[in-house]
Amino acid sequence: MTCPLHWLDTEGMTCALHWVDTEGMTCARHWVDTEGMTCPLHWVSRKCFSDWQTSAKSGKMATNAMSLYMVLMLSIWDQISAQGVCLDERMDLVIIVDSSSTLGEENFELVLGLAETIVDDIDIDSGNVHVGFMTFGTSSEIRFELNEYDTKVSVIDAIYSVEYSGGGSNTADALSAARSKVFSTRSDRPDAQNVIILITDGYSDINADRTVREAELTRQNGIKIYAVGVGLQDTSELDLIASQPLDIFRHTAEDWYEPVELKTRMFPAARCDGELPPLVEETNLDRPLILDSDEQDLVFLLHFSNDMYQAEFKKILNFMTSLIERADIDSGLVRVGAALYRESGVVIFDLKAYRTKKEVVEAIEKIPFNFKSNRANLGAGINVVRDQMLADSAGDRQGIPNGVVVITDSNSNINVDGIDESSNELKDAGATIFTIGIGLENPNEIVSVASNQEFSYILNDVAQLPALTTRLQDRVPSLSKLDLKPVLEETIGSLGFPTGSKLKSSESADVVILFHAGHKLKSKEFNKGLKLFISRLFEKAQVDSGSARGAVINYGAAVKEVFGLNKYNKKSLLRKAIQKWKPKPFRNSKADLTAALRLLRTKTLSKTGGARMSEGIPTAVVIVTDMASTSDSNAASQEINNLKNMGVTMFTVGVAKADNNELLSMVSQPQDTYHQSAKSYFDLVKGDSHVHKITNEIRALQKKSARPPATRAPVTTRAPVIIPSTTAALNVDHTKHLIIVFQSSSSTSPKDFKTLVKFLHSLTTYTGISRDTDLSVVSFGKFSQILVNSTDITTADNFILTFDKKLRSKMADLGGAFLTILKYVLKKGSHFQNTHIIVIMDKTVDKKGIDYTITAKKLRERGVVIHGISITDKPHPDLEQVVTYSDSKAFLHMVKSYAELEKGPILQSVVSSLQYGE
After folding, report:
1. pLDDT at 274 over 50
2. Which residues cross the membrane (predicted)?
């Protein structure tokens, strides 16, 4: 009688329930008693643990690693068992096993043996424990569901029937599928603890950027994750997957050369004595003092990249002021400071600088927008907080908890290797770190900086910040000390984005259709019903002017963005794309609505996806379906809440066997406005009532009131951006027609051209120019091009941002541009006293072109006021000859470079000159 390798035997050589062999017999799966040495029914021979050395040599896992891995798993489960896996405990357990090529087929067989060991001692037969099993390689696969087998023998047989698949390592897909498909209402029990044990031998190499986020979402759904790694040199990804604390929920084979007892709270379920220990995140184990104190020294650590726009910047400042809205600053319980990091860290104001809430709010609101930088050294920022902010000389108080809130919209690109050391030193000094990442390519960085994974928040957009305010205030007592009516109403702007009513009044909107077509849907009903309904929604949409943008997502067992918001800039092309759809690729018997909503939030409604929420453009989502969702309803509800928090207005259309109660729970309020139902897709297109019920709520989908048609600007596929507002609103009224003329020079760099476009957008959007103004835009080089022609400024400013530098020329025919205006822009017989032309040039006029002095004179004689902006460090004689003069003063503005266009004085100077003649 021998014990398995590395098992700790007692004097009697008893090895718990796991004997290795007897009398030459190969190892049974599980021996049932130590004296009789009898095998249970259905045992299947397996190689002895002592033989594993031979069988593991050809695999990736080292011999010791595999044998230690077995000991590891047995020890883990023994510890779990010791913490309450008793007859009166209920648990839904999903085992997820790596089946990638790096593991190898031989080692995969050994891992199945480990999976058997996991379920060997748990109570399956009584129904207390349900077990599901998954594997993952290039994609994940559910091998059996939680409610599929109800005996231990059948579960083990099912495990050994699983075949090796190979491929890559897509951990993200496995976690997502476990959360949304296995732990679902069909098989998941609400009164049972949900647990995942993830077994892997390496890093994710497919969808690696999603892995941490999927783990975070899984934990947020109340699912505990044990992460087990074999032969890993770097456990950073494993650390971010596992629940907290890591010494309980994350294990590697290397940790078990000398097996030690696991901590007593490894598994937060009912103990055998019936007591319920607190959840791990609420235990007093390393609990930060900040979670129990009414006092705090709080430091904001900020980074703003050059990709951040002023509207987003303002929302971050609003978030900061709203976060401290209920903090008791005036009595001294809370102190607030702020720092930022670029290439290095810098203190904005320290903890002793301000002692009243009003002063702190004013200081936050004065943080300059020009602090932006693409250089990001998070480690240096953390060091500044530790050494310069949390110091006695800076106002830090002994015995008062320190809180640090890191907010960034980009990953570090300087001294990245030093981040962990810096953050660990700050934590060791007693600070509690919260991190907020906005649109990050790699969220792992800031997740690892946070004091706890639960203290890290990964956002797609600043629109999600308002919802985060309450979560942090509820978590940290010092941020919610005052239960008074908000006292910052005058200084805190409204957060989030407008919904419903804004769609009805705004001329612009982004509209996304999510549709499901059942597998039994006839081709005729698909073509003449569903497809026609979606097409009719865009029948009168203002797509060509840039006011309306449309996108479509189809969902079934899988989800697909059929086309995104920046795909089509012409209504005819958009509707033609819909008409080309064939039924077969879209029909499906499954309806994974959760995955569709997640794709919508993370891709379609992102900046790169063409969404304009950052500009304040309202967004509508229309869900059209003929069956109930087959995904986890809780996860779908969470996604719906995320979208509503972002300001999205939800419409739903239920057809045939759709669950209208489910759809009613998703729509915006009032329900009768945003939800409708029909017996078939044919009914949706009988008359106009169903289409109009939606389009009547979205002005951008309605026929535009009569106005001069716009000449559509060239549209790129990039998402529009929000432009910095460089000055307060200026009172410019009654300007009826503004014509902007800019030079499209080959010498203008792409960066300078982008700055010019931003300037034009700021001029037409943020300066207070009357919304009744008509706008025209003309570019010129060798030839002239009308980009916008006599269009309402509220419509035109939305697609100024889409101007692209395609027509570049060494020649500058300003006279030709003026002639184009005379012939095609100015209306014959009109009065031009309220017409202003702004000419923007960075080089002299080409003498080979039309005489610009003659055409300029004709314009001035008709009452047109001509302004000039010269972008050069030298005098510009050409502009001096064409601009209007008033009392010997030329309406000519001089800047040395394009960069100066971003500064407030030049914008204010231009707007002031536009008041001439009013």
Report:
1. no
2. none
